Structure formats: C-alpha cells, structure tokens
Amino acid sequence: MSVDSLRQNEVIKEDKKNKLRISGWAADFNVTDSTGIDKVEIYLNGPKGFGKLLGEAKYGLERQDVADAFGNPNYLNSGYSFTYDASSFEPGSLHSFYVYPLSLKGEYQLIKVNIIMEGEEKESNTITSVEAKFGNGKIEIIGWVINKNIIEEGMHRSLDIEYSTKKIVFVSNKTGNEDIFSMNLDGSELTQLTDHPGMDTYPSVSPDGKKIAYTSDIDGTWQLVLMNWDGTEKVQITNNRKSGYPTWSFDGCYIFFEMYIDGDWELYRIDSD
User: Fold this and answer.
1) How far apart, in Å, are the Cα atoms of 192 and each of 102, 119, 175, 187, 224?
2) Which residues, 6 or more positions from 113, have their beta carbon under 8 angstroms from its beta carbon?
3) Strand, coil or helix: what is 10?
4) Same domain for 104 and 189?
5) Angle 20-25-27 from CA coordinates, rounded to 5°
6) What InterPro entries has UniProt attached to this entry (predicted)?
7) What tens digit of pLDDT does each residue of 1-36 get?
C-alpha cells in the first residue's frame, strides 16, 4: 500500500486546506484473484481506537500502474481517495493522518503521514524550561513554567505555594500489567500505586499534589478513577462510555477528560469531588 498524494511532513498551502486529498493504493498480496481489500479507513491525530475517525475513502479506483508493477491485472482497481476539509487547522500546526486498509479477513495495514500547515504557529502564553537527565538508574527532571500574562517588567509575582514535593508518577508494565508507580526524583522509594487486573494509565496529579486521577480499564471499558497520592482510597468517578485522559483545572475544582462517543473523542468536565 502507499499514500501518493501527500509527502511525509509536507507543508500544506493555505489555498489547499479546504480540499486536502489523501489518495494512494492498497492490496493484500496474500490474495491474487482480487485486491483483497474490503475498505480503507482514515483517522486523524491518532491510531484506530484513539484518533478521530474521518471516514472511509472511496475504494476501487483504477490503478493500472499497480497492476503492471505487480504483474497482476486483479490489482487494477486498488486505488483509493479521500478528501478532507482542513480549514480549521491552525497555521504552523502539525497533524497526522492514519490510513488503514482492511482486508476481507479483517486484517489491516497502516501508514502514518504527517503534515504541517503553512504559516507560523501562534505564540504560546507561557515560557517553559525543562531539563531531563537519565543515567545510573536515575531520572532527574528540572524545569519551570511562567504565565506571560502575569509578568510585569521590574516586578515579580508573589508566591504562596511551596513546591517541595520531589516525586513523579508514571506508568510501567514491570509487573506484567500496566500499573501506576511513584518514586523520588533520585530513583528511590519506588512505590506501586495500582494493582488492578486491567490497565491503569494516564495519571494526572492534582495541583495541590494530594490526589491522582487516572484511566483504568474496568471490565473492558475505560473509566476514570481518583485516588490519594499514596494509592489509597480509590474511587471510580465515571461509569459510562469509554472515558480517559484526565487533566485537572488550575484550581483543582474540576477534572477535564475525553469520552469516546460515536467514533469521536469529545471533551467533558466533572467536579473533582
């Protein structure tokens, strides 16, 4: 299979955004009496199951070059084409298309194509510095972030929060299942916080450092769970469709998350209590 219409990291001109074409060809070489392909699906900014499903490409277009190249006339109608309106993409932004040809047996191949929108990306309202050092079984993370909107020349903003906690939370499958762990920045006091049979992923620490929201695979469906920093008092806070990717509001009053509905990820908010 291939994507012919877009080059990797191609810059998309402004006048091409509203009719962005994704086209190429796809065939299952294990099948000789046909192309062996049932359909071609296109996803945006994430693979199947995570990215946004844009739809199915028109499949069965004539590709004489493919039939000639592989010496099989049954590959003649192996072409596909899909047109997408990308006018909402911001200048300078990076996006990825995931192209999935699905065979008649339900198997699939994948090609990922990155594009860059013409223009300059909007300036961020933050100034950030991050430095990470890895070695000798330790991870050291140093950095800072400042909101440009509260900076005044010659003055500093008073701080009433002491960021004394020097721990990180992360996901590891060292136990054979994906669970959430914490440890000090020097690598000491490694602590397993979850041991649920399903996967526990995407931890997000509350602004005060006391709570962790995360995604847990409960009976085959992603749900949000809240726990104390030390892993105690776990509470499931959603009980609906596939929900994940939690993040906290600045004041810690709300948790924002994504819910998978009818093939799309939608943004929702829930009280943190």
Assistant:
1) 39, 45, 10, 13, 18
2) 3, 6, 8, 22, 96, 97, 99
3) strand
4) no
5) 150
6) 6-blade_b-propeller_TolB-like, WD40
7) 899 999 999 999 988 999 999 999 999 999 999 999
Residue with tokens 């009433």, as numbered in its chain: 160
Residue whose entry in the numeric block shows the structure tokens 């012919």: 4
Q: Tell me which DSSP letter residue 206 carries.
A: -
Share of the chain above pLDDT 70, in %: 87
CA–CA dist 272, 252 (Å, integer): 7
Same-domain status, 9 and 105? yes
Q: What does the block give as tokens for 52? A: 């946004």
- Domain extent for 60: 2-117
Per DSSP, the residues of 36-50 read -EEEEEEEESS-TTT
The answer to whether 170 and 179 have CB atoms below 8 angstroms apart is: no
Residues 253 and 170 in one domain: yes
